[in-house]
Design brief:
By secondary structure, the protein is an alpha/beta fold. It has one domain: 3-Layer(aba) Sandwich (Rossmann fold), CATH 3.40.50.1820. It contains 10 helices and 8 strands. The longest helix is centred in the N-terminal third of the chain and has 14 residues, at 77-90. The relative contact order is 0.16.
Length: 269
Amino acid sequence: MPDPTVHRAFAGLRDGQVHFAACGPPQGQAVLLLHQTPRSWAEYAAVLPILGARYRAIAMDTAGFGDSFVPRWPPSIERWAAVAVELLDALGIARAHVVGHHTGGVIAVELAAAYPGRVDRLVLSSTPFTDAAFRRERAARPPIDEVATQADGSHLAQLWQRRQPFYPQQRPELLAAFVLDALKAGGRAEDGHRAVARYRMEDRIARVRQPVLVLRAGADPFASPHAQALCAQLPQATRHDIPHGMVPLPDQLPEEFAAAVLAFIDAAR
């Protein structure tokens, strides 16, 4: 019977230590999970044992978030993708299925484009298509998760209230998990959004030749509108809708999320 235990560890890479959590057979086909900003591997805590029943599921903390090292270089989708490949190298993994949510999906696109030999299948969950129109729109909006620290702690309520409309009303523990990760990121909480806004996906996405699953969370106002554009750019992509999915899709609906991922990557067997 598969061991559902999630094991946490660090891998020493060129620029520092990367923290990751893993579940499943050490010699099994690998599935690499990349989180949104400013979350951590914990976004996939309930997903890991489900995937780990059949695969070697690995959720890493992006550099600068969770317990991974804080990079000296500016936040960059390209550098984050390179760190993910370094982690695969450190774990002795030649190829992996790659799953990314929000910012993690943008990193996954670059990973598949820049290192095609390392990626089997690609799952893009709530992933924006970052073209010139996206960059103009993002430049006109205020920061998403950047709040100034206040002596009375009111910035904590501000962070909570800013994200609250995009989380299920009856699941405050999901928003609490987000706030904990955002606080841990400190002044870097906005780094992922800035890196996404700089990334020229329109110049890179044609290099993605792997089979792709586009997961659309129907109640995610940030990412849901981008599913059609992604599918238009990726003629090999299939789309799966999770109508009630919101911004925290992997930990909001882990069973439904994992079922969609498994159905897609199982087809590679």
